[in-house]
Amino acid sequence: GESVGLHLPTLSVQEGDNSIINCAYSNSASDYFIWYKQESGKGPQFIIDIRSNMDKRQGQRVTVLLNKTVKHLSLQIAATQPGDSAVYFCAEKKGNDMRFGAGTRLTVKP
Amino acid sequence: DADVTQTPRNRITKTGKRIMLECSQTKGHDRMYWYRQDPGLGLQLIYYSFDVKDINKGEISDGYSVSRQAQAKFSLSLESAIPNQTALYFCATSDGTAAGETQYFGPGTRLLVL
After folding, report:
1. Angle, vertex CA B7, rays to CA B5 and CA B8, nearest 5
2. Rounded to an integer, what distance in angstroms lies between the CA atom of residue B88 and that of residue B92?
3. Tens digits of per-residue pLDDT, B33-75?
């Protein structure tokens, strides 16, 4: 899950396995959520989003799950590939206020 | 994302110097943002602009100023740089519609203040 501090949570998976990255968001009134991927030396890249009136949304190889009861967001990556290695972070938005988590570092072992 | 460009990509400066970071976008978005990223922390909003005549402070605006020269250009200035402004700086854009809340980021500027 997410944390604040110098050391990011890490997740190490074997190539081909599924990955699940978690995020605990802070504002129960947030109505829009985004997952970003940030590779080393690059800017954050949009992966998938979900609105608060949904609890699941699927993209290509990725699924986002939203549990508003416990303010929890997860990103599932199917058949993880070496190119998926990056830092993944969630963002929550209410009105014009968007807040970002610190991220989780995903490492994919060949 | 090549649609959002930042210059310079890397910069080393000395305490007390004034520097400017520039951002340009070809996405045609009205909204632009400046963030800083520190190791192990989430992005923090410095300033944002919803159109050319609109400038708003973010959560950490002290020591920074911005200029929205055109819809496509948004620059960030450090009036008198200090070492704790050493960070990775990102520009982002969004189109501001209900369906366009996603922000698209530039490649970042790595700034080192000595």
Report:
1. 145
2. 13
3. 999 999 888 899 999 999 999 999 999 999 999 999 999 999 9
Residue B112's pLDDT band (cuts 50, 70, 90): very high
Pairwise CB contact (< 8 Å): A98 & B45: yes
Which residue is closest to B103 within chain A, CA to CA?
A46
Residue A81 to residue B45: CA distance in whole angstroms: 32
* Residue B86 CA neighbour count, 13 Å, CB half: 10
CB–CB of B103 and A8 under 8 A? no
A45–B103: do the CB atoms touch at under 8 Å?
A: no
Residue B101 CA, chain-centre distance (Å), reads 18
In chain A, which residue's Cα lies nearest the Cα of B10? Answer: A41
